[in-house]
Amino acid sequence: MITRILALDVGDRTCGVAVSDELGITAQPVATLRYKNPIERKRVFDELAKIISERNVGTIVVGLPLNMNGTAGPQAAKVREFVNALQNHIIKKNKKNENIAWVSWDERLSTSGAERALIAADVSRGKRKDVIDKMAAVFILQGYLAK
User: Fold this and answer.
1) DSSP string, the chain
2) Please, what is the average pLDDT of the chain?
């Protein structure tokens, strides 16, 4: 069975999601999931578990926001905490999710790259705000696929 690769761009209140095609060549945006508190974050975890199941995801690539000098700062710690909670949540939902591979990927400049691409495509500022996180996830995944 063919599995796909999912990428996450985790922020303080949003999570951008992208998924590979079945051949693992290209990345497509899926969603920007928004949350403000732990209850809404649980809903996001449920949505991610559903996407993982429906898309037959075998690998999850998580953008790790490193400092420009390559060190991990406070935001990287927040992302790791989010990922640990998500891993526990999806494994509780379905034991087969224990076999999913989790990969951290240096996401420096992914959001600015996505922003530049959207500006070049003449996407309005308001629309860019709605799609920037899932486009950053596309940049993360495309970088991982190109490795």
Assistant:
1) ---EEEEEEE-SSEEEEEEE-TTSS-EEEEEEEE-SSHHHHHHHHHHHHHHHHHTTEEEEEEEE-B-TTS-B-HHHHHHHHHHHHHHHHHHHH-GGGGG-EEEEEE-TTHHHHHHHHHHHTT--HHHHHHHHHHHHHHHHHHHHHT-
2) 89
